[in-house]
Specification:
Helix content is 35%, strand content 23%. By secondary structure, it is α/β, with parallel strands linked by helices. The protein has a single domain, classed as Alpha/Beta hydrolase fold, catalytic domain (Rossmann fold, 3-Layer(aba) Sandwich). It has an eight-stranded mixed beta sheet, sandwiched between helices. A two-stranded antiparallel ribbon has the order 1-2.
Length: 296
Amino acid sequence: MRTRRLLRLGSSAVLIVLSAAANSAAQTPTPASAPAAPAASRDASLPPAEDQAKAALEKSPRHGEYLDVKMASGGVPIRTWISYPERKDEAGVVIVIQEVFGLTDWIRGVADQLAKEGFIAVAPDMISGLGPNGGGTDSVASRDDAVKLVRGISPEEANRRLDAVRDWAMKLPAANGKVATVGFCWGGARSFAYAAAQPKLDAAVVYYGTSPEAADLAKIAAPVEGHYGGDDARVDATIPPAEAEMKRLGKTYRPHVYDGAGHGFLRDQNGRDGANRRATEQAWPATVAFLRERLK
């Protein structure tokens, strides 16, 4: 069966012929499919989660750019992302040490958030020159390839690269001469270890990174603050020995462990039934306050 319908547009008329099936479909609502899960809202006072990082960077009003930092030994320079704060006076520098995944959008998003808080944030690509054709993170084919390269960096080489970035950052015209590190996972362990290797470091923040051995803890001069997921037994097992030894040595180490949160909670804020988000909401303001205190 066909239905004839006259549609009048201004002074013109158009005859439309609809089949019964089409006519029925036009009048009968299509069963609704299951609604898509809403995207997690972004709290602008916190770093973006991994799935929010790219959009956050695109919307950021702050200036960020890639620069090449020369190594004292020569060779391929360290490709480094820098985010500048919007302020008229000089600022402290925070070196953002990447996870084992390389220099990602998420790490750059953390740097941008630190810049929002008033710091000059610099995030070196720690595998610069180690990838295909002398490239860095952007030269590898997969995240697994980045992981292999990062894990191949010796502690000594990591410290040399961090020294080069620190020396360069201290000389920035907008810098106040004070430098701290904040690192995540692999970078968290490197942040703690670098405090032992660099006696002039002003502060170190550790996010779910393992602690150094007791002999290295004795070399630390900078205050250290740590943030850990409660459900991260591998890393958390290294906290009590470090805490006891740092206390014995009269050094500052303030670990914070968040119940129910997992490893990588600042990046995976939507994970573990809200525990990761709750950990982020506590850890990040504490981090900012600690850095402001030490870099002013």
